[in-house]
Amino acid sequence: MNVSLCLFTADLRVHDNPVLRAALKGADQVVPLFVLDDGVGAAGFAVPNRRAFLADCLADLDAGLRQRGGRLVLRAGPVVDEVCSVVTRTGARRVHLAAGTSAYARRREERLRAALTAQGCALQVHDAVTTVLPPGAQVPYGRDHFAVFTPYFRRWQDTPVRDVVAAPRAVPVPASVAEEAGSVPLPVRAEVAEVSPGLAPGGERYGRGRCATWLRGSLAGYADQGAELAADATSRLSPHLHFGTLSPLELVHRARESGGPGAEAFVRQLAWRDFHHQVLAARPDAARADYRPRHDHWRHDEREAQAWRDGRTGYPVVDAAMRQLRYEGWLPGRARMLVASFLTKTLYLDWRIGARHFLDLLVDGDVANNQLNWQWMAGTGTDTRPNRVLNPVTQAKRHDPHGDYVRRWLPELAGLRAPAIHHPWTLPPSERARYDYPDPLVELSEGLERFHRARATP
């Protein structure tokens, strides 16, 4: 029997999975494998929310494979060692893998290729699995990536994409897979400690159900309501894109079939995701170093940083977002922008502090999108207006005009109505004293002046 190995990474699905489809097409039998990689834990990325969501995803992937006559083989340890071990035991002649973007994913691919070649096994890497277009598919003349989104998006829109790949009807696996030595049990979400109480379920079935419901409903109003905090009108599909339980390319196809301004706005967000991946692929150091240095001399104030993490800055819309992040392990895009602008420009604290906190809690914590969105807001990334500052009071009045979002996450201010709920420090002292809520860490005018002064200093 000709055996191939399908190594799942950030593509934990059976629908529109070119890696699984190619492995099945090129062999009589396939070994579906996922490795709980030691390297991910060592790098600090195996945090509770993502471990819990991953447990759901792996259980659901195993169930989907079993419905087709297969099963998921799960190993734990160094990924190269574990893959080579399974190749040896099963006699697999080829390993199929989705292309990655991060420096770690690229090193993993290089190490796998070298080790497998030594064993006489081929490695086949597939593009356009975790993104719509692979990084580098479109580049400006004389450069290795686009540094500005708008010209990238124009080219992205005009680039033909592959068709959606149907889910396989059958996944034949070697008989030895049922007793695969070295396999570990599937992780269980309930056994992961310190998970955010409101963390959403993971897995392909849940993701596809959520997607179908959203496409039928909120997509139509997404262009108008996507930034409205209380409306909760975003898709909430980012965790499924991060783990690959949904295909970004399939989402583009389905959104374009729906049509309308909402679909266009949603597709634009998927293009932003691809944009960040192509930036990181070309500049892997942007995960930790300024993409465009501004010669910042960041302040160091752990008390203020902790107040920001705890949602006790004195600015209700910022604090509401930080409480939602801790409770759900997720935030809508507008809220992410608000809290990032506040940390980096109003408090003038290093963007890496915020990026690390987000990666500690976000279920969709993705190196490309998280780090480069933080850099965009800090003005060290690809934003063509690097010194723009989002005023949290103005933003709150615009995107939470009735105060419903703030009341949802700050019960101590539930008795206040808009617009006072967005600036409770202006209440008469006798009324202000009734609310157990801190005064602002800094006056907005003071923070703005400090930031502009710092950016003007060489």
Describe this structure in words.
The chain is α/β, with parallel strands linked by helices. 47% of the residues lie in helices and 7% in strands. A five-stranded parallel β-sheet has the order 3-2-1-4-5, sandwiched between helices. The chain is globular, with a radius of gyration of 23 Å. The mean pLDDT is 95.
Brief overview:
This protein has helices at residues 18-25, 38-42, 48-66, 79-90, 103-118, 149-158, 204-216, 222-225, 238-243, 248-258, 261-282, 302-310, 316-328, 333-346, 351-361, 367-378, 392-399, 404-409, 429-432, 444-456, and strands spanning 3-8, 29-37, 73-77, 94-98, 122-126. It is of the alpha/beta class and 458 residues long. Strand 4 (94-98), helix 5 (103-118) and strand 5 form a beta-alpha-beta unit.
